[in-house]
Amino acid sequence: MPRVTLIILAFLLIPASTLAARGPASFSAARSLVAASSSPGNAYVAGVSVVSTAPVAGDLSAVGGSVITAAPVQGDELIAGGSVNVRAPVGGDLRAVGGGITVDGPIAGDLFAFGYSVHNSGRTAGSSFIIAANVALSGGAVGPVIVYGNNITLAGEFASDVKLTAIGRVVLAPNTVIRGKLSYEAPEPAVIPASATILGGVEYTNASYLPDAGTSRILAFVSIGFFLFVRIFGAIILAGLLAGLFPRLAEEITERAYGERLSRLLLTMLLGFGILVATPVLIILLALTFVGIGIALLLFILYALLVLLALLYAGIFLGSMGARRFAKRDMVLWRDGMLGMLALSLIAFLPFVGLLVVAILTLFSAGALLLIFFQYAFPHEETTTELL
Length: 388
What we know:
Number of domains: 2
Shape: elongated
Mean pLDDT: 84
Radius of gyration: 35 Å
Low-confidence stretches: 4-22, 383-388
Order of helices and strands: HEEEEEEEEEEEEEEEEEHHHHHH
Largest sheet: 14 strands, parallel
């Protein structure tokens, strides 16, 4: 692949060949351009839609969303576009980059094409180098042919060697003639009919691009590990932000755990359990009615927000308890939230016990958040507004 990249960069940087005429150059640019006047020298055209219907004595360089050349070019052609269609003969080299590239005219020089699909029905006198997902060469070639693609189809007469690298299938049309050697890499042998002639022999290399069972397991473990790392890292960052931005809210949740009796703690957990379990049932019942769809959507958003906050504040609560226990500090800092969420994430990996601890802390956090939000919405004390 590095070699392919270097070839593409070289293609883009190579200047016009010495075949270019020395006459005056012409420049044209428009949204929809039809070049109907012949150019005695090089021609440079650009537009959303470009159609060249006049001969060019020098080189032709065209850029556009759709580029069609319907007149001969004595020099080289350099074309870039979403759709490229070369219908007339090219006296020099053809270098084309595009989504779909179609070449119907003969090419006296070399062919370089890079795109999603390339179909060349014209005969190329020089060498051919093509990189595309789907490649079809139906006009043959005089010079050597090198193709990198997914599905590759060959037809016509090829006077030199043909080298193919395919991710998908390689197919030769009936009566295809290759006077040189056919070398190809593909996951499965090429479809070569009995009427095809290959004088230089066939060299096949089985190249499976799908990973084996061992590699698949390694990739699966790496993917799962990366996903868990991103999830845990994101949760730690969010917990640190919440603890740093709203420390009084975290301190109030911790006070409820330390300052309440066991029965109040159980009631808080029961409230969190009831809300987390009953809300999805209510959302489903509302969604079954036409009038309640909007309310169900709003409840779903609030429910998702509550679950996220409950999980985050479960880690912050664990970090604040650690600060009180070991640092002898009541104030909740941002690093307490990050350390608590890290500890909660590690506890979650413990079999059975870990999930139980996470569930208990999450239910308590959900119940405590609901009580605090209720007090904030219906304040009974002036200090309630200081929590947020």
